[in-house]
Write a structure and sequence with these properties.
Structural class: alpha/beta
Strand content: 5-15%
Order of helices and strands: HHEHEHHEHEHEEHEHEHEHEHEHEHHH
Shape: globular
Radius of gyration: 22 Å
Oligomer: single chain
CATH topology of the largest domain: Rossmann fold
CATH class of the largest domain: Alpha Beta
CATH superfamily of the largest domain: Glycogen Phosphorylase B
CATH architecture of the largest domain: 3-Layer(aba) Sandwich
Bound molecules: uridine-5'-diphosphate
Number of helices: 16
Largest sheet: 6 strands, parallel
Helix content: 40-55%
Amino acid sequence: MADILEKYAEVAGSTVVSHLRQLGRLLRGVRVVHVNSTKVGGGVAELLGELLPLMDALGLEARWEVIEGPPEFYQTTKAMHNGLQGQQVSIPGSGYRAYEEANEETAERLRPVLENADFVFIHDPQPAPLLSLIPNRRGRWIWRCHIDVRRPYRPVWKYMRNYVESFDASVFSLADFAQALPHPQYLIPPSIDPLNEKNIELPEEEVAAAREQFGLDPELPLIVQISRFDRFKDPLGVIEATKIAQKTTPVQLVLAGGGATDDPESEAVLAEVLEAAEGEEHIRVLELPPGANRTVNALQRTADVIMQKSLREGFGLTVSEGMWKSKPVIGGDTGGIRLQVVDHYTGFLVRTPEGAALRIRYLLARRDVLEDVGHRAHRFVLQNFLITRQLRDYLALMVALHYGEQGRLEVGTPNNHPI
Ligand code: UDP
């Protein structure tokens, strides 16, 4: 049980792990349930898969449940997601009905688990109505919003707020996303797991083999964007940026992604992307199966520059993943990307394909800058965006909600503040 935490101490330092143990002691045996809408694909699933074993190792009883529904449920929740990210969407009455029914069915299926939990974390809009369907709950319920809700489309937010208001607290990834709500709001940015196969060091041969495996030019500078095929990730903008850069700078692009089981739009977006890339020798679109973590790792490591040109982004784990590998990231100037990419320091923020093309050319012409930015990016992630930091924030939140006003919590180095 201790071993897994010791491994994290080797990467993140012993102080942070000592904090985790101190907080974990206060929460031993506490029942925590996380509910989201997919086990596969996307950042939330990625994070939960990593956080749960750590909560377990600290002695909490953590479990992960998934809301499921018919295709109309996913169409509705995808539209809600887009609406919360600011797109004007129109959701038919039958869509809202499918949404509410899927929640009713999930409430029936999970009733004992949800009633008895000490903490329930509801991730994103999909399972938000569950709270209203579990009147006999005994624990604290927290709405964990991962998406960029800086300027939501009002009708969708109005509908969603009815559900969200009843929670005991909500968590957003950054201050920009906080909303007018009648309960405490906490800011907890997501994080990456340095021990996940996606982020561990890889042998050089394995990194080089990735180029061969996907028929890439072994010498040509490489730009990589790893993303679900989603319009907010702006894959077409990335292709355009590459084409502009290619006019003066030899460079190749890989756009790699897969779908998520809760995303009905990805096929249509992929078709658009394939059309835009057709006939382009140095633009490769890769469809990755779920869990291709080592492949993602190798592609990011063999890249010269990582791109994440999103138009909206709750956080963007792929940004920290690239930075952890000491790569400069060219990121869309939006949402959680701004938290990770400090412009000109740990990467570059861009708003247009032309801007992205300019940065590609600059970085490939200035290898010294490319390397400096990459090194600073790695350190920035080490200090701010590793899973140990996020877990500590979650534990502190639970301690605060659990113990309320009862006392002061001091977490420190073992010598100064023993608990
Ligand atoms: N990812 C992956 N394979 C893919 C596409 C994405 O493993 O084909 C991973 C990616 O490396 C990252 C996560 O899925 O860890 C996506 O999280 P992010 O926050 O970047 O975006 P989201 O999909 O949650 O909007």
